[in-house]
Fold:
Amino acid sequence: MPHVDPARLVELALGNDAGHDDTDALRHLAACGRCREELHLMTRVVLAARGVEEPDLPSAPPARVWQRITQGLSEPDEPAAPVPVDAGRHPQPPSAPPHRTRPRTRGRRTAGAALGLLAGVAIVRWRRRGR
Structure:
C-alpha cells in the first residue's frame, strides 16, 4: 500500500472533515510508523499555530532594517579596487570606499528570511480568521 499523500496528512492534522478515502489512510497509518510520525509532527505544528496569540506574533521591523536590506541588495558584486601604491611602496588610502568583496547571498538570504517570516505570519492570521 502506498504511503499517505502529504496533503491528506495535512488535512488529517487540521482535523478537517473525514472523507471516504480516510478509511484507507487511517488503516495505513495504523501499520506505517513513518506516516504516523509525519502525522504526529504535522499535528504538533497545527496545534502550535492554533495556540499563537496576538502578543506572540512578531512586530514589524523598524524602517532601518528594510533600508539595510535594500542597501544590501543594491550593492554591486564587484571586488574591491586594489589599493594604489606610490613609488616608495607605501599604500595610499583609497579615494572612495571600496566595493564589498563578499557575494550578495547574505542580503538575499536576509530578504528571503524576512519574506518567509512575513508569509508565515500572514498564513497564521489567515487561518485564525477562518475559524
Notes: The mean pLDDT is 75. DSSP finds five helices and no strands in the chain. The first helix runs from residue 6 to 14. The CA atoms of residues 77 and 103 lie 6 Å apart.
